[in-house]
Amino acid sequence: MPQHTSLLIIGAGPFALAAAAYALEHNIDHLVVGKPMDFWKSNMPKGMYLRSACDWHLDPMDIHTIELYLQTKDLRPPDVEPLSLDFYLGYAQWFQEQKGIEPLPVLVHHLDYADDVSRPLTATLDNGDVISAKNVLLALGNRYFQNVPEPYAGLLPPGRYSHTCDFVALDSLLGKRCLIIGGRQSAFEWAALAREQGAVTVHVCHRHDTPSFTPSDWSWVNPLVDAIAINPGWFRNLTADDKQAINHHMWLEGRAKLEPWLWPRLDHDTVTLWPNSQVAACEEASNGDIIVQLDNGQRLTVDQIILATGYKANVGNLQLLAQGNVLAGLKASNGSPVLDEHFQSSVPGLYFTGFAASQDFGPFFGFTVAVRASAKIIGASLVA
């Protein structure tokens, strides 16, 4: 017999943990399925730092905050900022323990929808177990949305390039030459880590000017996200021009700036920046070298190419939907699910949050600043 729950949370990253904390606080019957913080553990490199500060915590009840976690270690925010990946994983583990969140550490193979108002959604797990649920929240990481722009898929030698999401063992670059394609924070952080792990040359190629190494101002984001928690329709009901203005403001802070602590790690003769350029041709030589021709006439010889080309929502990439019967009935726009004011999709009972919700709820939902607002809005709709 299938196990039944009122709310099945698929995923165990920040958005899922926040949603589970809200469910526990409000006695919502639920289950969490997924390996805790797996995207952060498996798809981010050791030595990485977050761009967020201590105020972007996980608790929608504002109890088990990062600052409370620091108090248990007799530390203050200036002692740990910028936040390291290891620190954040430690906080997430502590948060999970304090809340008593115990995910089932398995993956969902496929999700099906049935015409049954009491338990319309059925998840079949990789281990063969089945869970039926009245509501399902997909709180999945960006792993499924990695963006490989069309030119590169046909231009670069198969097997000789990887997305940053997949290339996190940067110690494998010891003694090697690499090219990183991209010009935002991840490109430059991967470049710094590659150099520090012993790459003999690191090239960074991007189509625009190199962003400035200037502190980002996130102070305006928290009030907007708090406002969305109170009025979920706020962003979606803005005019197109107002939405564009907010998206542009977020772009200026998140993509047109680089963290200043990166520059000293890049100011080295083994790191070369190639702004206002892109790959024009690429071939694999008989000796295994990758010969790259840039459109500025520069010729590079490397051993590895890394695509720091970000993420793009595409629900068609979610195999747990494609392998079930849900995808055919799911309305999408530009690859993102079409959501109502409570994050519910066109499939009754199926909710999306995180990066997949950023088109309808704003660019903040691609960042952990939005986990608390997301948990409150979805949780409140289920309580109601």
Descriptive labels:
alpha/beta; 13 helices; 5-stranded parallel β-sheet; 2 domains; FAD/NAD(P)-binding domain; 6-stranded mixed β-sheet; 384 residues; single chain; globular
Task: Describe what is shown at a glance.
The protein has 384 residues and is an alpha/beta fold. Helix content is 29%, strand content 21%. Helix 1 (14-25) runs parallel beside helix 13 (371-383).
Question: Could you describe the 3D structure shown?
Answer:
The chain is of the alpha/beta class and 384 residues long. It has two domains: 3-145 and 311-383, FAD/NAD(P)-binding domain (3-Layer(bba) Sandwich); 150-214 and 259-307, 3-Layer(bba) Sandwich (FAD/NAD(P)-binding domain), CATH 3.50.50. 29% of the residues lie in helices and 21% in strands. The protein has 13 helices and 18 strands. The strands form five sheets. Strands 1, 2, 3, 4, 5 and 18 form a six-stranded mixed sheet that branches. The longest helix is centred in the first third of the chain and has 15 residues, at 85-99. The model has no long low-confidence stretch (mean pLDDT 95).
Strand residues, percent: 15-25%
Helical content stands at 25-40%
How big is the Rg? 22 Å
Give me the CATH fold name of the largest domain. FAD/NAD(P)-binding domain
Structural class, judged by helices and strands?
Answer: alpha/beta
CATH hierarchy class name of the largest domain: Alpha Beta
The global form is globular
Largest pleated sheet: 6 strands, mixed
Query: What count of structural domains?
Result: 2
Low-pLDDT runs: none
Number of helices: 13
Residue-averaged pLDDT, rounded? 95
